[in-house]
Design brief:
Length: 133
């Protein structure tokens, strides 16, 4: 007692007689594609549903709680990446500062990197404190 044919995202229609068909359509040049039957059990790629794995956080009793792990590790990963990036920038700035102390002339970009090293140190310290908590 369905109200009519149901359609899938790929355009396959299921009729009331439980036949699966790709309906006829008109091409850009005006010719008509004929209606085609779809084999039983065939699922086109457009109709395949993506399954999302649930990474559940375990509670104190070892049983999964309702929370998922998707948000927390992502922020931890991003924080770790930011820490590595800042450490790399600081190492480069320290090398440039040593060059400047030896009397070499630095390019404007290199001098800017040396000047920003203090703010990067403060940001790195704040991220490390955040990551430890």
């Amino acid at each position: 007692m369905s109200s009519g044919p149901s359609s899938t995202p790929s355009g396959i229609v299921t009729t009331e007689a439980n036949e699966r068909l790709i309906p006829s359509s008109r091409r850009a040049d005006g010719s008509v594609r004929r209606e085609r039957r779809v084999r039983a059990g065939y699922v086109p790629q457009e109709d395949v549903q993506n399954l999302e794995a649930l990474n559940l956080v375990e509670g104190d009793d070892g049983q999964p709680s309702g929370e998922t792990l998707t948000n927390k590790p992502q922020t931890e990963i991003e924080t770790a990446r930011k820490i590595r990036t800042l450490e790399k920038k600081l190492k480069q700035a320290d090398k440039l500062k040593e060059k400047a102390d030896l009397g070499e002339t630095l390019l404007p970009e290199q001098q800017e990197k040396v000047n920003r090293s203090d703010s990067w140190r403060e940001e790195l310290d704040a991220l490390k404190k955040l990551n430890n908590n």
